[in-house]
TrEMBL record:
Recorded GO MF terms: ATP binding; ATP hydrolysis activity; transmembrane transporter activity
Family designation: Belongs to the ABC transporter superfamily. Macrolide exporter (TC 3.A.1.122) family.
GO cellular component: membrane protein complex
Protein name listed in UniProt: ABC transporter ATP-binding protein
InterPro entries named among the record's database cross-references: AAA+_ATPase, ABC_transporter-like_ATP-bd, ABC_transporter-like_CS, MacB-like_ATP-bd, P-loop_NTPase
Pfam families documented for this protein: ABC_tran
PANTHER family for the chain: ALPHA-D-RIBOSE 1-METHYLPHOSPHONATE 5-TRIPHOSPHATE SYNTHASE SUBUNIT PHNL (PTHR42798:SF7), LIPOPROTEIN-RELEASING SYSTEM ATP-BINDING PROTEIN LOLD (PTHR42798)
Swiss-Prot/TrEMBL keywords: ATP-binding, Nucleotide-binding, Translocase, Transport
ABC transporter domain residues: 7-225
Length: 225
């Protein structure tokens, strides 16, 4: 069985204002095609862990593997490329560029990767929007669409480079229940129809229950996985 992500003995200490051992001996793996959720009380270390797993934070000890390749210790430049190519990230807030159109927002990570020509990126972006049933929004400015639509655009943007894994930090935390259910359905479809691997931090127990596995954190440790 292939694992897309593996954390081995991850520890992190915040040094200021005083030493605080926030993550303690974190070990776990995400299987290819698995939809896993991370739950735990506020302050248990979920976001801190997700930022390490997504390579955005490199200040930790232990080892992180993506597609069985050790990525701990790589330069910021290489990590930025790995992140852009392999990790899609959806935040609680969408962080769309409001003056850009929906289509332009979705195209941005592919333009940054600079592998494909503009026309192909545009076609890919349109396909992602249509897959999420928001093709009709492509030429609207991001500032002119609803909150639920913005989050779907953020998901399309996270998918544009066909990532190995999609990570989310409370991606439904800012949505009403209708839009939260919609995002959950999209994630499930991505897993079932595309075989995508997903790892999502959530406070929503119903959301977590409908994922394949709940990883539970307490005081910086994984207490069940
Ligand atoms: N830069 C920092 N320096 C010092 N302590 C920090 C820093 N960032 C976070 N912390 C502390 O680390 C702990 C874990 O924070 P983290 O944001 O990972 O928790 P969380 O489980 O995601 O919480 P929430 O559910 O509220 O988002 C908290 O006690 C927090 O106050």
């Amino acid at each position: 069985m292939k694992h897309v992500l593996e954390a081995r003995l991850i520890n992190k200490i915040f040094r200021k204002p005083v030493d605080f051992h926030v993550l303690k001996d974190i070990n776990f793996k995400v299987r290819e095609g698995e939809f896993a959720s991370i739950m735990g009380k506020s302050g248990s270390g979920k976001s801190t862990l997700l930022y390490i797993l997504s390579t955005m934070d490199t200040d930790y000890s232990g080892e992180l593997y993506l597609n069985n390749e050790l990525i701990t210790g790589k330069s910021h430049q290489i990590l930025s490329k790995i992140r852009n190519e392999h990790i899609g990230f959806v935040f609680q807030f969408h962080y769309l560029l409001s003056e850009f159109t929906v289509l332009e927002n979705v195209m941005l990570p592919a333009k940054k990767l600079a592998i494909k020509p503009h026309s192909e990126i545009q076609k890919d972006a349109m396909e992602k929007l249509e897959m999420l049933n928001i093709g009709n929004l492509a030429f609207k400015r991001a500032s002119r669409i609803s909150g639920g639509e913005k989050q779907r655009v953020a998901i399309a943007r996270a998918l544009i480079n066909n990532p190995t894994i999609l990570m989310g930090d409370e991606p439904t935390g800012n949505l009403d229940s209708y839009n939260a259910d919609n995002v959950l359905s999209i994630f499930k479809e991505l897993k079932e129809q595309q075989g995508l691997s997903l790892l999502v931090v959530t406070h929503d127990l119903d959301f977590a229950k409908s994922t394949d596995r709940i990883i539970e954190m307490e005081d910086g440790k994984i207490v069940s996985a």
